[in-house]
Amino acid sequence: MSSVLDRVITRARLAIRHTRVEDIPQIVEIQNRVYPEIGGWRPEQLESQIKIFPQGQVVACLGERVVGAASSLIVQWGEWGAHHTWKEVTGNGSFSTHTPNARTLYGAEVFADPTLRRVGIGKKLYQARRQICRMLNLRRIMACGRMPGYQKVGNQMSPEDYAMRVIWGDLKDPVLMFQLQEGFQYCGVINGYLPSDEESRGNATIIVWLNDRYKPKQPTVIPEGPIL
């Protein structure tokens, strides 16, 4: 965007909707640009996610153009806790681990087109995820975030020290700082969460957002069709 006005106009045009099968080529293309070293979803993984839990998959759009996406599933958090890998908790991206009657929305992925910065794509996707959590009466959102700045200082400190220094304001990490701004709380670090993530040296921060509208006496309810 060339000016503040351009960003304001683009932000106003951003729309969020549930992911469709026809979105898959655009999602894969964007994610491969975001993560050139790790690589993006495979089409069959996205197809499985849409089939298993369509209500948890969303995209950000400018007109017909997909400019970001977020993928989520519901898990029984006690079965995973602070010791799991991305591959384990997501069923290697298939979401075969989705547990509809559980209480935790797990954020498996969120990303935005790197050519469109500072127009609010990430914020819109996080808002949508919180809305899904509330509408399904889930207790919390859990996620494990990348630590892309850790590679530069990994020989000087542990990933736990790195995360704390980011929280204290001594270091900057774009992912963790954004998540904290979105109301998530830092809970710790998982080592070996995503071994292929060289920037994070395989580590990830555990973060949580608590649903203040959660009704413990009411069940998790997943309606048919879209919920956004």
What does this structure look like?
By secondary structure, the protein is α+β, with helices and mostly antiparallel strands. The protein has one domain (4-210): Gcn5-related N-acetyltransferase (GNAT) (Aminopeptidase), CATH 3.40.630.30. It is built from 7 helices and 7 strands, in the order αβααββαβαβααββ. The chain has helices at residues 4-13, 24-34, 43-52, 86-89, 121-135, 159-168, 174-181; strands spanning 15-18, 57-62, 65-75, 104-112, 140-145, 185-190, 204-210.
Search tags:
228 residues; alpha+beta; Aminopeptidase; seven-stranded mixed sheet; globular
Give the SSE map:
Blueprint: H1 4-13, E1 15-18, H2 24-34, H3 43-52, E2 57-62, E3 65-75, H4 86-89, E4 104-112, H5 121-135, E5 140-145, H6 159-168, H7 174-181, E6 185-190, E7 204-210
Parallel strand pairs: 4-5
Antiparallel strand pairs: 1-2, 2-3, 3-4, 5-7, 6-7
Round the Cα radius of gyration to an integer and report it: 17 Å
User: Strand tally, please?
Assistant: 7
CATH topology: Aminopeptidase
Record the strand order, biggest sheet. Answer: 1-2-3-4-5-7-6
Q: How many strands, which pairing sense, and closed or not: the largest β-sheet?
A: 7 strands, mixed
- For the record, give the distance between the C-alpha atoms at the N and C termini, rounded to a whole number: 28 Å
Mean pLDDT: 93
Label the CATH architecture.
3-Layer(aba) Sandwich
**Structural class based on helices, strands and sheet pairing:** alpha+beta
Summarize the structure.
By secondary structure, the protein is α+β, with helices and mostly antiparallel strands. It has helices spanning 4-13, 24-34, 43-52, 86-89, 121-135, 159-168, 174-181, and strands at 15-18, 57-62, 65-75, 104-112, 140-145, 185-190, 204-210.
